[in-house]
């Protein structure tokens, strides 16, 4: 983009913001004055001079805001028309903003900050829209918490309150880097408030979406505390960030964990420590990679696990070696599901079988059962891509073995999950073998799982199981022509749809397609 063209964008953006402010319009109002609406995130970037725009859009803004028509001549003269004015990221940002507007639990957030945060989240290319919105909500909550801290003088000193109010004001204008600088300077000047400022700065790192800054801050704090074993202390801190990111679905926390694991590698003094840090790195990369559309993180996770296996010899630490093999299998299996072919899946199966050589039932029964379940899942996907039924039969055997230790009275949800996995595999086997007995086994497995996967406890898992039963019933109808089956399947799908409508657009679309199939059979 030529320099003169950038100047045109910046000057025009200022003119748009000035005219909009004089009219007392929000960005929403301006967006609605233009047909078709470009969305308020797009217009926010126009006002900042960050976005190329076409003369057509310039003309619409001139008409809506009664701007000087000389602007259209300047844009035509400089030829700053973009190839693709509204990008997929713009659309994703607008979707997130619409979700916030419809969510009564979303904290009140200044418009500029809300748009900036939504744009940051959409840039991460989440594979699941629900996960993207969950991430945005966590950022909004942190911003709201910082604002509240500045409004509660009883909990802070006057000086700290003034600092936090300044931070909040800058955040409201989406000047998040400037707000972070205020906190950094305050930390240097105010040792008495260091603890509160440290946590406020971590929150600001989250608000401005800078995981690398948060990781550096955490490591610097650990060094100041001077633990007896810095590597061990960093490992415990990694665990906190990793588990929070994994269990609460927070990608930011996983990104911090990745950076802390890399810091751990730099601190490692022995092969055992290097192996542990590589395994930590692999875990964080794998969980984050499973939530993203690309495969880069998962590929990095595989590489980290392979390096961990080099640094943690089997003879020296057989159980840790088996853990890493299992983790490697998980990453390979996830890649195998995403990629065509069977190479990754075959590698995953091999990794699980190696893990089972050390994670034996008599030594670590729960780990043994978990790996049997993982093996069954990889074999199922592999069997779906191959002809014949050998892999699928092996998968059913692996699930049955897992159920020997993952018993209902011990781990009820794991027991139910394994049953649903086995049900899906049995359903595929039944379809290939054209065997009503296999279909009956599949339906029986799903019915058992529903004893624990109750709608009032785990609604999403309940809906998925109900949908799987319906799909199995539709497959069975193709074999038996039992007229009751399509109606039963339709009723189950409609029940599952009620949950998906509130939870997942992706699953809702799949469910709607199955509903259409069921209705077609009833027509």
Automatic annotation (TrEMBL):
<protein>
    <recommendedName>
        <fullName>HTH cro/C1-type domain-containing protein</fullName>
    </recommendedName>
</protein>
<dbReference type="InterPro" id="IPR011990">
    <property type="entry name" value="TPR-like_helical_dom_sf"/>
</dbReference>
<feature type="domain" description="HTH cro/C1-type">
    <location>
        <begin position="16"/>
        <end position="72"/>
    </location>
</feature>
<dbReference type="InterPro" id="IPR001387">
    <property type="entry name" value="Cro/C1-type_HTH"/>
</dbReference>
<dbReference type="InterPro" id="IPR010982">
    <property type="entry name" value="Lambda_DNA-bd_dom_sf"/>
</dbReference>
């Amino acid at each position: 983009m030529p320099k003169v063209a950038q100047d045109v964008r910046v000057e025009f953006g200022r003119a748009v913001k000035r005219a909009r402010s004089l009219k007392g319009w929000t960005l929403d109002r301006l967006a609605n004055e233009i047909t078709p609406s470009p969305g308020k995130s797009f217009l926010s970037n126009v006002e900042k001079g960050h976005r190329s725009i076409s003369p057509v859009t310039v003309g619409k803004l001139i008409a809506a805001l009664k701007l000087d028509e000389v602007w259209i001549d300047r844009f035509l003269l400089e030829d700053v028309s973009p190839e693709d004015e509204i990008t997929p990221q713009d659309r994703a940002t607008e979707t997130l903003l619409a979700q916030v507007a419809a969510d009564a639990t979303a904290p009140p957030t200044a418009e500029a900050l809300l748009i900036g945060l939504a744009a940051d989240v959409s840039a991460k290319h989440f594979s699941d829209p629900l996960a993207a919105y969950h991430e945005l909500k966590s950022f909004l909550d942190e911003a709201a918490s910082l604002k509240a801290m500045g409004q509660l003088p009883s909990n802070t000193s006057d000086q700290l309150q003034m600092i936090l109010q300044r931070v909040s004001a800058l955040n409201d204008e989406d000047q998040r880097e400037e707000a972070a600088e205020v906190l950094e300077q305050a930390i240097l000047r105010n040792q008495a408030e260091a603890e509160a400022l440290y946590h406020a700065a971590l929150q600001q790192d989250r608000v401005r979406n800078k995981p690398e800054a948060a990781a550096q801050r955490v490591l610097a704090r650990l060094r100041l505390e001077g633990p007896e074993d810095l590597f061990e202390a960093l490992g415990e801190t990694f665990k906190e960030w990793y588990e929070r990111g994994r269990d609460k679905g927070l990608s930011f926390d996983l990104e911090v964990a990745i950076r802390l694991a890399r810091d751990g590698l730099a601190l490692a003094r022995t092969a055992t420590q290097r192996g542990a840090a590589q395994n930590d790195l692999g875990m964080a990369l794998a969980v984050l990679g499973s939530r993203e559309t690309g495969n880069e993180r998962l590929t990095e996770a595989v590489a980290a696990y392979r390096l961990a296996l080099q640094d943690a010899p089997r003879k020296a630490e057989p159980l840790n070696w088996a853990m890493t093999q299992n983790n490697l299998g998980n990453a390979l299996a996830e890649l195998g599901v995403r990629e065509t072919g069977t190479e990754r899946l075959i590698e995953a199966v091999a990794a699980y079988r190696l893990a089972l050589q050390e994670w034996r039932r008599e030594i670590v029964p729960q780990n043994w059962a978990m790996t049997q379940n993982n093996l069954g899942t990889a074999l199922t996907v592999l069997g779906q891509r191959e002809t014949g039924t050998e892999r699928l039969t092996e998968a059913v055997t692996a699930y049955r073995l897992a159920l020997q230790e993952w018993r209902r009275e011990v781990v009820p949800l794991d027991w139910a999950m394994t049953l649903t996995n086995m049900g899906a595999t049995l359903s595929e086997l039944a379809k290939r073998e054209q065997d009503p007995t296999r279909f009956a086994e599949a339906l029986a497995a799903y019915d058992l799982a529903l004893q624990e996967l109750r709608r009032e406890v785990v609604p999403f898992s309940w809906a998925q199981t109900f949908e799987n039963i319906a799909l199995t019933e539709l497959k069975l109808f193709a074999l038996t022509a039992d007229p009751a089956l399509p109606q039963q399947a339709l009723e189950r799908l409609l029940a599952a749809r009620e949950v998906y409508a509130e939870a997942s657009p992706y699953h809702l679309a799949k469910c709607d397609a199955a509903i259409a199939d069921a209705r077609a059979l009833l027509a």
